[in-house]
Amino acid sequence: MLKKVWSSSSIVKAILFFSTFITSVSSAKEGMWLPSQLKQQEADMIAAGLQVPVDKIYNENGTGLNNAVVLFGRGCTGEVISSKGLVLTNHHCGYGSVQALSTTLTDYFANGFWAKSNGEELPCPGLTVTFIRKMANVTSRVLYGMRDTLRGQVRDNIVAARIKYLEEKLSKASGMDATIKPYYDGNQYWVSYTETFKDIRLVGFPPNGIGYFGGDFENWAWPRHTGDFSMFRIYAGTNNKPAAYAKGNKPYNAKTFFKINASGYKEGDFTMVYGFPGTTKEYISSYQLNDIYTISDPIRIAARTRKLEVWDKNMNANRDVFLKYTSKRAGVANGWKKWQGEVKGLKINDVTAKKESYERTFEQWAIANDSAYPYAKDLLANMQVNTIYADSALKTVEYINETVFGIELVQQGGFIGRLVACFRTGLSGDALRDTLQKVCAGTHTFYKNYDVRTDKDVFKALMPIYFSQCPHDIPVYYKAQYSDHNNDFGLWADDVYKVSLLGDEEKLKSFATNAVPADSSRLLADPAWQLYIGMQGIYKANTAVVTATNEQMSYLNRLYMKCRMQKDDFKPSYPDANLTLRVAYGKVKGLDPDGPAGYSYQTNIDDVMSVANPDVEVFRIPAKLKELYGPRDYGRWAVHGTVPVAFLADNHTSGGNSGSPVLNAKGELIGTNFDRPWEGTMSDLYFDPALCRNISLDIRYTLFIVEKFGGAGWLLNEMQIVKK
Fold first, then answer.
1. pLDDT digit string (tens) for 630-682?
2. Which residues pair with 587 in a beta bridge?
3. Catalytic: 92?
4. 689 in Cβ contact with 31 (< 8 Å)
5. Of the residues 19, 658, 683, 696, which is catalytic?
6. Where would a tag sit more exposed on the chain, N or C end, judged by fewer CB atoms within 10 A?
7. What is the DSSP letter of 25?
8. CB–CB of 67/133 below 8 Å?
9. What is the DSSP string of 85-114?
């Protein structure tokens, strides 16, 4: 789509109606509200069906439900569901931790894992959960005396110094960690007081035939049939406080946890999602949106399509490769499919045109308010100039990241630089070899999840894309190697992976064990290093353009948001997501992706069985689930002869909300959020009430799997489960 230049001289005279981009902000469905903002939304929430005071949802005296919501790891949400620190989150949120615990012998992805007692719960090194105890607005203490148009390093240094000082002071005063983040593009700053627990142990994990059922075919799609959950437990040290892992640590004593309501719901019932949405860009200009819509998303989709084809072929042929790549694949595929839906949703809604319409009204407002905000009238024109200037560089950076640096050997090529540095110290003999061995020991994690044959196939698939799409940005070394190998990417790849030290962990270890000073020349000639360093000049030059533009756009966006916050149509509003605690609310509501005949808001175990297929890996269900299904052995979780599996609501969610508790009008847990339908993934950029939904796992299916399939009914004994 061509970009149209807007300037103060080109403003239309007629006042246009505000687009749905703005008028829908205050609706009950759209919005990721700061917990402290709920008071201003209370009347609207009550009208939508809320039955508890918002003070129960969030307060600072330790009794609010915020004390039962955790940031799980570095990018998911979890909820505490018992007084003994039991945490429920998504299967895919626990995937990386479980992969680290899995071997070809245990293979928890194929077999699942169910602890039968606290003593069987498995420590998860590196996994953390973080509680938000309270939040406070500290804008006046960060921005005092600072004019709007102050910019660049001067402003950044002042803000950074004030934040550091405040974080240290507030942390010391509260006895908790204090983290300050910007909101509304840096027009506000809020502090979160947190406690982070580091002793987290695996409790329950259904096999992939339940927790990853449907795989990519069903990811970002409705209907869903996935039992996307896992369970962990928080362990604490003395005084119930965070502590490093120790065998003597005790389960965390949770004073606040979610009561579970197993009575179900009906369409139109009030729901809330409480969690940590990661990143949204609801307020960006049409120019920035176009960069996502026409450059970044299409490039990522095309490159990842080829990469996933290669990975799938090799993973399906070899179980060891599957185990090495399953977590990495999930991460790559998640974005790949999401971006496809995002592009589709943006196109359906013609979001660029809607933003342009709003921008015309903004420029008219800017002229009318020139005395108060003299910088406003040129903001959009400056935004356009900056984005156009960086478009070519953005394209090159995206292609490098997704193709050249999407090849694991090339990514790892930078490690050669660390080895070269060892030689430059002047060490020799045993001292040199000992240093090299210690440095190389750190690569074990990389090789644990690496298959050289698979990566070579990726090289052959991705390198041609870069050559064809960036013909003017091909490094000299690349051109020479391609020519020397008869313009054959396959021959080039064979040579690279045969010669490079990085293609094999044992080869690298042998080099470190036997190295002499003269071997530094071998490192510098290594093709992985040459590929890595050969691309750095082009990559850094283009990245510098993109970075400089982003810095300029950050400044312009801050002023743009400043002005928008003064406009009556902007209030009330919520800030873009930034992985801090938020509440979204809406109602149980279905979707008809294939027309009225396909309308539904819930799936059940019968639907699971109808799509199960023993010949397709991701649709293969465990034998025990079949055994339970045959006689309809559902126990207390039967509902009209079946078990509900997933349901839809129109809450506004994003990445990071994976694992979030889905609550009813009483603040009781009825499900766990895990996805959005493909048609509505553009909700990170634009919320369409007709298409945007969140997909949640029904808590009754979770409890059925835990008790009847996993044989871990002891866990239910520590929960508070009601049916009313």
1. 999 999 999 999 999 999 999 999 999 999 999 999 999 999 999 999 889 99
2. 270
3. yes
4. no
5. 658
6. C
7. T
8. yes
9. -EEEE-TTTSHHHHHHH--TTT-HHHH-EE
- Compute how many other C-beta atoms are within 10 angstroms of the C-beta atom of residue 435: 18
Q: How many CB atoms within 10 Å of residue 550?
A: 15
Q: Kindly report the pTM of this predicted structure.
A: 0.87
Residue from 92, 225, 451, 660 carrying the catalytic annotation: 92
Question: Is the separation of the CB atoms in 413 and 499 below 8 Å?
Answer: no
CA dist 167 and 325 (Å) reads 39
Local structure of 80: helix, strand or coil: strand
β-strand 644-649 against 661-663: which pairing, if any?
Answer: unpaired
Phi-psi region of 640 (alpha: psi -120 to 50; beta: other; left: phi over 0): left
What is the distance between the alpha carbons of residues 618 and 537, in angstroms, rounded to a whole number? 42
pLDDT digits (tens, 9 = 90+) for 65-85: 999 999 999 999 999 999 999
Cβ atoms 140, 188 nearer than 8 A = no
700: which 2 tokens? 């009754």
Cross-strand bridge partners of residue 231:
88, 204
Type of residue numbered 48: A
- Beta bridge partners of residue 180, listed in sequence order: 191
Which among 450, 470, 444 is positioned nearest to 407, based on CA atoms?
450
Q: Which residue has the tokens 């990721």?
A: 32
Instruction: Quote the CA–CA distance of 200 and 692 in Å, as a whole number.
Output: 34
Distance, in Å, from the CA atom of 287 to the CA atom of 289, rounded to the nearest integer, reads: 5
CA-CA distance, 534 to 95, in Å (whole number)?
Answer: 35
Among the residues of 175-296, which ranges form H helices?
Answer: 208-211, 215-218, 286-291
658 a catalytic residue: yes
Rounded Cα distance between 151 and 268, Å, is: 48
Q: Among 294, 247, 276, which Cα is nearest to 119's?
A: 247
